Amino acid sequence: MENLDWKNLGFGYRKTEYNVRCYFRNGKWGELEVSSSEYINIHMGATALHYGQEAFEGMKAFKGNDGKIRIFRMADNAARMISSCEGIMMEKLPSEIFEKAVKLAVNLNKDFVPPHDSGASLYIRPLLIGTGPEIGVKPANEYLFIVFVMPVGPYFPEGFKPTDLVIMRQYDRAAPQGTGKYKVGGNYAASMVAGNKAKKGGYSAVLYLDSKEKKYLDECGPANFFGIKENTYITPESDSILPSITNKSLMTLAAELGLKVEKRKVPYEELATFEEVGACGTAAVISPVKRIYDADEDREFTYGNEPGPWSTKLYNKLRAIQYGDEPDQYGWITFAE
Fold first, then answer.
1. What is the model's pTM?
2. Mind listing the domains of the chain with CATH numbers?
3. What is the DSSP secondary-structure string of 195-263?
4. I need a surface site. Which of 51, 106, 209, 261 has the fewest CB within 10 A?
């Protein structure tokens, strides 16, 4: 293994030793297979290439001070992948295969799990694709499930420091009653043009409004949105929003820390009333927001140049559980071995 600068990893692909694979053929799932290849052979007519039959998850493993490797909320990721399978008619991957493959992939690459004091983690990418060829628009009869891993630093280079978001109404991330609530690649492809434009303008991400009426807050590009005011943690509810496992965790912790929790439609006008705002997800955990610029209305909302007190408490609490510095009272942690 190369000598890694654990504190300056960045968030990008990095080769590790092994990945784990499982095929669905002839109406059944096979046994787990271990591979050291970074490549797959795929039929040119595979439904993943033509009709978007592809779903993935993003999760992390952390090394504690005790040397143990902790995988965060693996069962929830397995359940979300099943939901994605149902949403785009892929063969449902049994949770036991998902969890067994994740643990095996982590253990095979345990030398790549960053040390406890680095602030980095092992990113885990489970991927399911339709490999069977179809030219008519219909589901494949063969699928490939892969789990690969890599050490990563923070998703946003700024780390836990406030960033700027931008609103651009001409772009939508996902349509109502579409695939927004599933973790499928098409949603991310649809966000690339706006996301790239935002980054060129100096913003970390786009804050999307609902695509039907442009009246309510939706998502922050690759992450869920939350706002805090009057001792209340507020996050948008919509059929087009991906149910973030990090956001779900933060809602639990917010209630434990004494905040009220509301998951509901959040009108655009409410941006002016929040004391703190953040984006949350597996990759970033929490990215505090200092400013939201509405490019269409030439209007800005500001929230301070430093992370807010509640965002800081929530961030530290969740990270402490993930790294084993505080006890896990919720059954969120699975030990790799």
1. 0.96
2. 6-152 (3.30.470.10), 163-322 (3.20.10.10)
3. HHHHHHTT-SEEEEEPTTTS-BEEEETTEEEEEEETTEEEEE--TTS---HHHHHHHHHHHHTT-EEEE
4. 261
